[in-house]
Amino acid sequence: MQLLRYGSPGQEKPGCLDKQGHIRDLSGHVADITPAALHPEQLHQLRQLDIESLPRVPGPVRFGAPWTGGALFIGVGMNYRDHASEIGADIPPEPILFTKWCRPTGANDDIIMPPDSAKTDWEVELGVVIGRTARHIRLEDALDHVAGYCVINDVTERSYQFDRGGTWDKGKGYEGFGPVGPLLVTTDEIADVQNLNLWLDVNGERKQTGNTSNMIFDVAHLIHYISQFTTLSPGDVIATGTPAGVGAGHKPPTFLKNGDTITLGIDGLGEQSQRVLQAAPQ
């Protein structure tokens, strides 16, 4: 099932896509796509609906984040072999984890860079949305805790990440640095999560091309690993790393500027497009 939320910020309604790609309204069956709605039993009930009989939503519409109410937005650093190579880093022996302090935002919402932005960068990533509480889970059980998958742009201010001391979180958490969606695609629609193509363009120029088979630590391992350190709950999301082609990896490095447009997508999970703007000095 391809779940989504549509409407103005703070007034989104739950919906889904039918086989023709039309938006159908789910508000007669679920109040919103919340952590409770992501539990396997609730998703099973939604999948039993006759989608074609649901009210069709006329477009165009704004897509909000495809679910709401998750507590944790966790990122994984240097999790693609080609990305580690492009920045001259060793393959990490264990997953590198950080948190994104920002809230997931709509897939096509504007990205507002900080007033002093110098090195704002792009990162197309596979998002893994948790549907069942995971704590100290076994590797072989890890994927049973997934509600679905989505596209994430893990926007990063590199000057905050590397030049300001402390942890990576500083560069990852600026408000609006987490466009998600437009879809949350349930696991039954993804045949092999470790064989999905990813791509990202800036102003129509291809910057990133990759495949999730290039991950150093696969999705199951990441869920198993993270669950040893914290409890993952329904609605939490993991951004699983990015392939080569980020701005910091270019020679010379190149970063986003006011007025740029980013377009990105993943096989079966939809596409995003964002306009980049720079906040005025305070």
Written overview of the protein:
- This protein has 2 domains: 63 residues; 206 residues, Fumarylacetoacetase-like, C-terminal domain (Fumarylacetoacetate hydrolase, domain 2), CATH 3.90.850.
- The longest helix is centred in the N-terminal third of the chain and has 8 residues.
- The relative contact order is 0.21.
- It has 282 residues and is mainly beta.
- It is globular, with a radius of gyration of 18 Å.
- Strand 16 and strand 17 form a beta hairpin.
- The model has no long low-confidence stretch (mean pLDDT 96).
- It has 5 helices and 17 strands.
- The strands form 3 sheets. Strands 1, 2, 3, 4, 5, 6, 9, 10, 12 and 15 form a 10-stranded mixed β-sheet that branches. A 5-stranded mixed β-sheet has the order 7-17-16-13-14, with no helix packed on it. A two-stranded antiparallel sheet has the order 8-11.
